[in-house]
Write a structure and sequence with these properties.
Strand order of the largest sheet: 3-2-1-4-5-6-7
Helix content: 40-55%
Structural class: alpha/beta
Mean pLDDT: 92
Distance between the termini: 62 Å
Largest sheet: 7 strands, parallel
Order of helices and strands: EHEHEHEHEHEHEH
Radius of gyration: 18 Å
């Protein structure tokens, strides 16, 4: 059994991969999940090159059975869970509400919110055991600044992430005496493949939060004492407001045809 182990959903790219790197650097054995098997294998190779123990599990988190199999695979590999990072998210954006299909809405709710609930529920036994052992099992749920204010083309994503915030706060209220700390990571626009749609408005990755910034936030959490509960960390690019204004202008141009 590893001395510390973590499960990271969405660990094959973007924010999830950055968080998995930090966990490995901090001595955690890590299970990463993702849908794209090639990207998942490449991410696992990167992590192993840094000397960590890594389990890679392909999973579609819209399916409850895949989540159960993922958590079971982690337990079989490492026997414990000291940290759970829910970073998986559906990668579409820039869709006006008028053009939003029910299928897209359902997919976002399934992956961005329902899967987080199911993954936490499936992991609670191991997290509770870790909390009883050393007083600080961690659950980091990646939300979004979109949940706190209107972002054009992101209504479906914002709604799911607002649910993530409520889920996290309620789960923390239940786990208060179990040695489990729940923290919300709230990034603004972040330079990941999911934000590529903003380039239509001339937004450059260099204007955004970098995935490694969230990694440093996780490193901070891993090093705080068990008597310090950090409820939320916001990661906001200085240009956040300007980026939204540019997206609004782009939407208005597309609507008027000018």
């Amino acid at each position: 059994m590893e001395p510390r182990a973590a499960l990271v959903t969405g660990g094959s790219s973007g924010i999830g991969k950055a968080l998995a790197h930090v966990l490995g650097q901090e001595g955690y054995a890590v299970t990463i999940s993702g849908r794209d098997e090639a990207k998942l294998a490449a991410a696992a190779q990167e992590l192993r090159a840094e000397g960590g123990a890594v389990e890679a599990v392909a999973a579609d988190l819209a399916e409850e059975q895949s989540i159960a199999a993922l958590v079971a695979a982690h337990e079989n590999a490492f026997g414990r869970m000291d940290a759970l990072v829910n970073a998986a998210a559906e990668g579409s954006g820039g869709v006006p509400l008028a053009n939003l299909s029910t299928e897209m809405l359902d997919r976002h709710l399934d992956v961005d919110l329902r899967a987080m609930f199911l993954t936490i529920r499936a992991s609670l036994a191991m997290l509770t055991a870790a909390g009883a052992e050393h007083g600080k099992a961690l659950v980091v749920n990646v939300s979004s600044l979109a949940a706190k204010g209107g972002t054009p083309g992101m209504s479906f994503y914002a709604a799911a992430k607002a649910g993530v915030n409520a889920l996290t706060e309620s789960a923390q209220a239940e786990a208060r005496s179990a040695g489990i700390q729940f923290t919300i990571f709230t990034p603004g626009f972040t330079a990941t493949p999911m934000s590529a749609w903003t380039r239509q408005a001339g937004v450059a990755p260099e204007e955004m939060v970098q995935p490694g910034d969230l990694g440093e936030g996780l490193r901070f959490l891993l090093r705080t004492s068990r008597t310090c509960h950090v409820r939320e960390i916001e990661f906001v690019p200085p240009a956040q407001r300007e980026i939204i204004e540019r997206l609004v202008a782009m939407r208005e141009r597309s609507t008027t045809g000018s």
